From TrEMBL:
Residues 105-246 form the Cell envelope-related transcriptional attenuator domain. The keyword Transmembrane helix applies. Belongs to the LytR/CpsA/Psr (LCP) family. Keywords: Membrane, Transmembrane, Transmembrane helix. Residues 1-20 are annotated as: Disordered. The chain crosses the membrane at residues 27-50. This is LCP family protein. It holds the Pfam family LytR_cpsA_psr.
Amino acid sequence: MSHAEIDLPGEWEDPSQPAPRRRRRGWLIALLLIGALIAGLGVVIGGYLLSLRGEYEKRSTVSIARTASDGERPADLGSGTNYLLLGSDKRDPETAAREQTFGQRSDVMMLVHVPADGSDIYVLSFPRDLYVDIPGHGKDRINAALAFGGVPLTVATVENYLGAPIAHAALIDFDGIKGLVDALGGVDVEVPLTFEGDGIEFTEGIQHMDGETALTFVRQRYMFADGDFQRNRNQQALLKAILNSFISRDTLSDPMKIREAIGQVSPFLTTDDGLTALTMAQLGVSLRDVRSENIRFMAVPHGEPFTTTGGASVVGTDEEGMDVLRRALAEDAMGAYYSQYAGAY
């Protein structure tokens, strides 16, 4: 979307007005885990809660403390809470804690904003090739921050770009998908288009997938005209299906299924060390009335793809559009922002 097409308001428009048609956004697997815990921890008590906590503690943890080169963390204005959710297709659970996920690039990156009133939740996707400043490394694709400095540098990069603090962060590898999908008994995925990958036929429309099929589905890209963009859409379609399955009555009424699912995904999960089981439980209680229809998906403002002088293909930024988003985050006014800009990017 060009700058000329953006209507930058002096004041927020009435959020009660009908929202423009919005682009369907998918579900990052880390959001799935958090959503699952929100749903699960809000309805379980006692010994089962302790058991669930034990499964969650199989994850790896890292500190997201800043270094001198990262600069000062943006001020917390006390309005709403931001979470950074990352997905990667190359993570070794045995070395994740030691290496702090250095050397990878995040395939998926989303900001989750939870308003102070705990109403609707806003999820904003970042293009993986967005060309931004990475502290200590100059301009590069935003997904390179994970390779340069792990989750801590990725958090600092996003905070600097948004001008807003990140309270917690989570990263999951896609290898956690297989066991998770199987633990749920398979999931029904809305396949965006027909294609064949690794000997498996995927047909446009609803298709039931087991874990192996799901993993194949989200890893394909070379047969698509737009490569990674279609792969991202496929990943989003699968993750949406997983979340819908996770918060279904059949799953929430089956404590052992929740426990098994979390146990399957936790070894492939890294969070900041502050995102404890207790923190998750508190979040679950505060958001106990939130349902899938209360989660609003958007993309952060961005420019057009271009090639750098060094020959890299990247996605440009949109500073005017970002200023509007930064203001909405600072003022905890994402409802008004969503009513005007949903589907704009």
